Amino acid sequence: GESVGLHLPTLSVQEGDNSIINCAYSNSASDYFIWYKQESGKGPQFIIDIRSNMDKRQGQRVTVLLNKTVKHLSLQIAATQPGDSAVYFCAEKVTDKLIFGTGTRLQVFP
Amino acid sequence: DTGVSQDPRHKITKRGQNVTFRCDPISEHNRLYWYRQTLGQGPEFLTYFQNEAQLEKSRLLSDRFSAERPKGSFSTLEIQRTEQGDSAMYLCASSLQQGQGTQYFGPGTRLLVL
């Protein structure tokens, strides 16, 4: 399939390790944030979201942290698996549309 | 499959031709969005509908682009007189109006203008 994000920042991790992907957002008024996973040739897939009145939210193997002071989001993936290999985007909701950050390519090696 | 669907998945056209893409949202979602994504970038907002009404259009949406959602269900995005710079992935998403309005994306239509 066609690659997405040929020149994106890349995070390489060993299978089984934890991954941390970081994102800076721009709008102080944003009150809702989402992490998406995008595999080659596919549309973005919802992973986890967080509202601005929270600083942490956990899902299955994933945790999102929000630091409003410095306008920073992070996505933590526990026990990273080969199937986690993809490009990850954070997005902030501004009025009713999403503004996407620069993606990060996650590569998982055995 | 009850997710967002898009058709076609791939389109190759010659410069100057018109193209039309279709998006079918998740059935109970009343909001539908169009985004464009170029290689190495995140999706960029183009326009969105709430039911039949087109509520916002980005400055990215030139006069050659038009989107419709005549019955508040599926939507079409038409590009007239295509240019090479229109080559991109065109993504559709849908959401509920209520709550956070989490947007769920379709697989996209990959357009290549020769």
Structure description:
The complex is a heterodimer of chains A (110) and B (114). Chain A has no helices and 10 strands. The two termini of chain A are 22 Å apart. In chain A, the strands form 2 sheets. In chain A, strands 1, 3, 4, 8, 9 and 10 form a 6-stranded mixed β-sheet that branches. In chain A, a hairpin with a 2-residue loop joins β8 and β9. Chain A is mostly beta strands and 110 residues long. Chain B has 114 residues and is mainly beta. Chain B has no helices and 11 strands. Chain B has strands spanning 5-7, 10-13, 19-24, 31-37, 44-50, 53-57, 65-68, 75-79, 88-95, 104-105, 109-113. In chain B, strands 2, 4, 5, 6, 9, 10 and 11 form a 7-stranded mixed β-sheet that branches. Chain B has a 4-stranded antiparallel β-sheet with strand order 1-3-8-7, with no helix packed on it. The termini of chain B are far apart. The relative contact order of chain B is 0.33. The model of chain B has no long low-confidence stretch (mean pLDDT 94). Chains A and B meet through β3, β4, β8 and β9 of A and β4, β5 and β10 of B.
